[in-house]
Amino acid sequence: MKKSLLIVSLFIFSLSHSQEKTKSVNALRIDKNPVIDGVLDEDFWKNAEPAQNFQMFKPGDGGNESEDMKTVVKIAYDDEAIYFGATMYDINPKAIPMQFGGRDQFGQVDFFMITINPNNDGQNDTEFIVMSTGAQGDAKVSSEGEDFSWNAVWESDVKINKDSWVAEIKIPYSALRFSNSPEQTWGVNFHRKINRLNEQYSWNYIDKKVGLFTQYSGLVTGINNIKPPTRLSFSPYAFAALNTFNGDMDTDYSIGMDLKYGINESFTLDATLIPDFGQTAFDNQVLNLGPFEQQYSEKRAFFTEGTELFSKGFLFYSRRIGSRPTGYGKVQSNLNENEEIASNPAKVNMINALKVSGRTKNGLGIGFFNAITEKTSAEIKNTLTNETREVVTEPLANYNVLVLDQQFNKNSSISFVNTNVTRNGSFRDANVSALLFDISNKKNRYKTTGDFKISNIQENGENKSGYSGLLEFAKISGNYQYEFGHSRSNDTYDINDLGYQNRNNLAVYWAEVSYRIFEPTKIFDDYRISLSSNFNYQNDSNQFAENNFELDFFFFTKTRFAFGGEITTSVGDQYNFYESRVNGRFFKQNPVYLINGWVSSDYRKKFAFDVRSTYAKRYSLNNELVELSISPRYRFSDKFSVIYKLNFSKLANDEGWVTNLDNGDIIFGNRDVKTVTNTLTGNLSFNTKSTLALSFRHYWSPVKYGTNFFELNNEGTLNESFYQGNHDINYNIWNLDLSYSWEFAPGSQFVALYRNTIFNEDKLANLNFRKNLDNLFNEPISNNFSVKFIYYLDYNNVKNWM
């Protein structure tokens, strides 16, 4: 929540373009490389033209820096790189916050940020950030937001002086994409964050009331006769692991390589050969009692870095690649007499993957992704003869994504997206195509968005097609903004082979109106209030399903105390067409109201906290939810901090699906669901390149059913049933990661990880917290210790060495 307030809240919509003249600055060509040490003592820095007179970006709207807190930036370049020397004057440099952290970790620091757009297209910036501690951050910017998973290799250093702090930066041309033209004019802007004053300034004025901040770049001129370099780099790695579980021990090791190659000045090939994801962070798994698959965020670096094009249309859910085999759940039900499962792998191994992405100077973006996964089989054993047989649960498979995205007018785009999954043999194949548009008017006051998607599934010799469409219109400028839209999908629309979708056969109508400020008041630096509603219907029958009305509010005071909440209600009977897990059947429910509130204190202080509470209740019933989340954090020093979070929720008298019987009966039960989640994270930074990190999470969710069960009738209500069974659940997940990372050279890293995991699911829902822990620790513990060594090699540097 606060991170976006500190940095990435740059993506803001607004009212009308600034009438101020676009600034420009001339870059100075140099013959000798400067030493990147944070000291601007080379003679050429004295002769370079300054970029100065920064304007307030936050919390106010315009206004000059004070003379004793001014910022001066100078630019130089040679045949290898572009250089920036930034002097941030400060009347009290000792007060500059210096919380150490790793790459892209924005704690309590000041920062200087460069946004570069060699094509000056107003939509695709690249950000390079240097913090007062010397730590780096970088991101790619698109219409989807800022992507901090993107990492480039560049140099920087800082120095704190008696009246300022200085950042000296070298960005090699291999980190940028630009045309091979004799004269270059690049879009550029600079930002300075003064954390203790809660102020941020930009060199070229940004009118927060209109458009995206990427449309407010200044210009860098005077860059002549430079050529795009050969963009070729290799990152070979070696990985080794020791695993113990239930008295067994095994080892694992692998070697592989990531490759990045600039095909031309616009497009880059990324490939991973023999990939290994053994040190990927654990998922925050939860007990899922609902009808929909749980969605988890992608944490594998190859699938998160530089993937902004592939997110178009929300058709690519990369967790599908290397996930559970499609036939995993069918193995048990297909066992013959006297057979048991000897092994049934829960994930598919990826053989390799590559992606090609980039954008031409004329705004055409092209993205191509391909991955191959290996054949996966379960082993079935005959308990009488000890003979085994193999059952293929996932054949050799190819996953493919193609994106064409044409941008224009610095604020609009039209896109085509295609995803395809082809599996060897007679297994299921899938193809999805989509046409998208996102068009704003010239003054960035209004926008219309839409898409049309078609899915096609081939399975068991049959072909099944489906469709989905969306149309939305919005006013995106001014204090008052609004939007309204409609989406629709039929009952055969299915993108789940390479995308994520939890519902189809759905028609949705929605609208929202909001009010926000762009100039601080006496009390608030920012606030926003919105009112929204939506109505859902079944697509095929147009039968009403559910509605929702929601009031949201957010306030951020001058003292950096934030608070907000929501009030939500539905009106009239609600019809749930998914809970029964049977097409055409619905569960009739009373409407529900929900009240939520949260507060967040000033993170600049050593001690800070976040508190959130929720209460929800179904009208005329005792079905209610109470939830409380408390998260204190403490910064022991600039190098050591911890964050603890406790989340408690209790759902009482909830009516939900239990099972479907062979005779067609749909059984529901009345249940109480309790959830307790404890998380602890800590970071000890030895310097900006070396960090010891702790991540711990224990999730506990007991579910207790009543003695009576119910049958869902055709009217959507429940009748008492003679069904009996024990469906209580006691669900535990324990994860602990302790890792040490060291960036020993630019782009090169050593990581050591200890991981401790326990999982248990049984029916002991009556246990209290202490006895539940005793019960959990009776389960076998999975211990993993692994090390990974990655070394970055740039072709241009290797060529120079040789």
Structural write-up:
Helices cover 4% and strands 55% of the residues. The strands form five sheets. The chain has a 24-stranded antiparallel β-barrel. Strands 1, 4, 7, 8, 9, 10, 13, 14 and 15 form a nine-stranded mixed beta sheet that branches. The protein is globular, with a radius of gyration of 28 Å.
How are the SSEs placed, and which strands pair?
Elements: H1 2-6, E1 24-26, E2 28-29, H2 43-47, E3 50-51, E4 55-58, E5 71-77, E6 81-89, E7 111-117, E8 126-131, E9 136-142, E10 145-147, E11 155-160, E12 164-172, E13 183-194, E14 199-202, E15 218-224, E16 232-245, E17 248-262, E18 267-273, H3 301-304, E19 339-343, E20 350-359, E21 364-373, E22 376-382, E23 388-394, E24 397-408, E25 412-423, E26 429-440, E27 446-459, E28 462-475, E29 480-489, E30 506-516, E31 524-538, E32 544-557, E33 562-569, E34 574-576, E35 587-589, E36 592-600, E37 607-618, E38 624-637, E39 640-660, E40 666-687, E41 690-712, E42 718-721, E43 729-745, E44 748-762, H4 769-776, E45 782-790, E46 793-794, H5 795-801
Parallel strand pairs: 1-15, 2-5
Antiparallel strand pairs: 3-5, 4-14, 5-6, 6-12, 7-8, 7-13, 8-9, 9-10, 11-12, 13-14, 13-15, 16-17, 16-45, 16-46, 17-18, 18-20, 19-22, 20-21, 21-24, 22-23, 24-25, 25-26, 26-27, 27-28, 28-29, 29-30, 30-31, 31-32, 32-33, 33-36, 34-35, 36-37, 37-38, 38-39, 39-40, 40-41, 41-42, 41-43, 43-44, 44-45
